[in-house]
Design goal:
Helices cover 31% and strands 23% of the residues. The protein has 481 residues and is of the alpha+beta class. The chain folds into two domains: 8-100, OB fold (Dihydrolipoamide Acetyltransferase, E2P) (Beta Barrel); 128-173 and 208-468, Bira Bifunctional Protein, Domain 2 (BirA Bifunctional Protein, domain 2, 2-Layer Sandwich), CATH 3.30.930.10. The strands form three sheets. Strands 6-10-11-16-15-14-13-12 form an eight-stranded mixed beta sheet, sandwiched between helices. The longest helix is centred in the first third of the chain and has 23 residues, at 130-152. The chain starts with 7 loop residues before the first helix and ends in a 20-residue tail after the last helix. Bound molecules: 4-amino-1,4-dioxobutan-2-aminium adenosine-5'-monophosphate (4AD) and magnesium ion.
Amino acid sequence: MEQRRSFIKDLLQSTDFDREVNAKGWVRTKRGNKQVAFIALNDGSTINNIQVVIDIANFDEKLIKDITTGASLSVNGTLVKSMGQGQSVEIQAKEVEVYGTADTETYPLQKKGHSLEFLREIAHLRFRTNTFGAVFRIRHAMAYAVHKYFNDNNFYYLHTPIITGSDAEGAGEMFRVTTVKAGEEKRTQDGKIDFSEDFFGKETNLTVSGQLEAELGATALSNVYTFGPTFRAENSNTPRHLAEFWMIEPEMAFYDIHDNMDLAEDMLKYLVKYALDNCMDDLKFLEQRLINEEKQKSQQERSEMALIEKLKFIIEDDFVRLTYTEAIDILKNSKPAKKGKFQFPVEWGIDLQSEHERYLVEKHFKKPVILIDYPKDIKAFYMKQNDDGKTVRAMDILFPGIGEIIGGSQREESYEKLLSRINEMEIPEKDMWWYLETRKFGTVPHSGYGLGFERLILFITGMTNIRDVIPFPRTPKNAEF
Ligand code: 4AD
Ligand code: MG
């Protein structure tokens, strides 16, 4: 086995025939007769398999038997133009080595068409299905595109800490980090846990957001972004929430809310276009998968657009921009509100529910929507206060089928206003001294936002459960693998 290994993706595109090649991968299917076996081999480099043709007379009987679905192989042979349908090239095998067999009785991926729920239970093997291969190749491409976009637009990638002492979003939904064994916590005189004994000498948690530290970077480097894991101990068992998810958080000095919206819209369009330009094989497969799934649904439940059309539609049209207050008026005058169809009643001051967001995007505007100027009471302490005394310069971007994909704001740059909000919201001022100091020394107007990476991947792939777009999901009562 001297031949250098080629990736199947490259072999399938090759027109350089009648040369010796080596391919390695896993058997997807084997069919044939007593004389010849046809093996569909996949190595993850593409959704497409290469056909390996084995002239049975030239091979050991046991070897042929060992080549079953799931087995891993190395194949030496001649790359030839294929006469068969559905493929342009194939390998005429000369030598085959089986690295690992896969017992037909127990290998769980025998039959086609497993449910996504079942595949979640075998997340260690689900990469080997077409669907998850496509999803995770696209996830990689999107991560790369995020870095490329920011690099090409004068941003610096800033690594913000995962262990923090502050609660950026102020929602109190944090996972504690400690070296003290359960049951061995020391107590202070007033009965609280004495964190001075702990590893960091203070209470620490897994971060819910890199934003506060990104702001520190932006006040010197101008444009920075983070891209890392974030953690939320919120007990929301929904198809759109994870306890551990990846977030992209750009932060820009000298940006107001309008600059912020322009950047976010431009970035989202860039990412969607990148997927269309670079992931078409996988997108076509996922689109077909959705079309097959839709056939099982009633006419009403079916979506109006196929996946690729939906992605193109995002690039072509401007997003709609309006204020929260305007959105509330639209919702109040909507059919579902008048007929009492919303589960959560619409009133100025409420946090919009998924049903409201989806009405605006999917029914009313039929476009992505950017909402700004939310009531201050439902948003985080750091957002810039508007002159009306009631609203803040928040910005949420709502997408079809997803709801909120981005949340961000212009930040409060006035030391006095920020401090008074911190006190009003009873955030411990002593923990925030470093954040406050950026407003004391050379403060500037600045803005930023957070893009939920898995929500982006949901949108691009058309998958409907967030557990299916991250390799190993962390959700309530679930940390297997
Ligand atoms: O709206 P969020 O909470 O905003 C922030 O964390 C800000 N610090 C961002 C910033 O301004 N730098 O979260 C931002 C995005 C949401 O719009 C959503 O896409 C995603 O993160 N997100 C989640 N994704 C999966 N699971 C969860 N539990 C999520 N919570 C938020
Ligand atoms: Mg939000």
